[in-house]
Amino acid sequence: MAGYVSEAVIKRLPAYYRHLKELEKEGIHQISSQGLGNRMHLTASQIRQDINCFGGFGRQGYGYSVSGLREHIGHILGVDRTHRMIIVGAGNIGRAVALSDSFPANGFETVAIFDNDETKIGMTVGSLTVQDVAELKRYLDENTVDIAVLAVPVSHAQRMVEVLCERGVKGFWNFAPLDLKVPEGTSVVNVHLDEGLEILSFRMLRELA
Asked: Concatenated DSSP letters for the chain?
C-alpha cells in the first residue's frame, strides 16, 4: 500500500466493505459516489477522496461496480486471505470472539484459545478446546499464528504481548485497558470498552445541553 493514508480513512474502510456487501445482497450492481455517500452519511467528495487514496476505481458517469469495489476494498483490508488467530483469555470476551460467525466469513480463522484458569481449561468453546496457557509457547513454536486476541487482565497483558512477539505474532486485538508497547512492525488495535461508553455518555450529554 503506497503512500500515506490517514487513520480516518483506514477506519472508514470496514464500513465501505460492509455497505458494499449489503448492496450486493440487495442485487445492486453499480452505485455512484453520491449514492454511496447518502447511504453512509458522507459526502460524494469524501467517498471519492477515500477511494482515490488506493488508486482510481470508478468511471465518470457510471460510478462504481459494487462487486468490483467490494473486492478491491477487501483486498486492501486483507480479508481476501486467511489470517490464523488465537485467543488468550477464555472469559466472556474471549468466548464471544471464539463463537462469532462473522470472523471466519471475513478470513479470520480462530485456531486456538488459551487460559490459565483450571476451571476453564478443557472446556469446549464452539469447535475449540481451551488449552492451558502454559502450553502457549510450545503451540507457537509448532504453529503459525498471525493475530492474537488479548482478553486477559491488565496485569498480564504486556508480558503476554512480549511472549507472543518473541514467537512471531505481528497483530494484536487488545481488550485489556492498557496501551501496549510493541516492537516496530507490529500492529495493535485497542478495544477499550469503558472508553467507548464514556464517549457515548459525553455525546449524550452534549445533545441534552
From this structure: --S---HHHHHHHHHHHHHHHHHHHTT--EE-HHHHHHHHT--HHHHHHHHHTT----BTTTBEEHHHHHHHHHHHHTTTS-EEEEEE--SHHHHHHHH-SHHHHTTEEEEEEEES-TTTTT-EETTEEEEEGGGHHHHHHHS---EEEE-S-HHHHHHHHHHHHHTT--EEEE-SSS-----TT-EEEE--HHHHHHHHHHHHHHHH-
% of the chain exceeding 90 in pLDDT: 79
Residue 108: name the closest of 51, 146, 75 by CA. Answer: 146
pLDDT in tens, 2-36: 457 888 999 999 999 999 999 999 999 999 999 99
Range with the poorest average pLDDT among 15-19, 80-84, 122-126, 195-199: 195-199
Residue 196: is its pLDDT beyond 90?
Answer: no
Query: What gap in Å lies between CA 66 and CA 70, rounded to an integer?
Result: 6
Q: Do the Cβ atoms of 146 and 169 come closer than 8 Å? A: yes
State how far the Cα of 23 lies from the Cα of 51, in Å rounded to an integer. Answer: 17
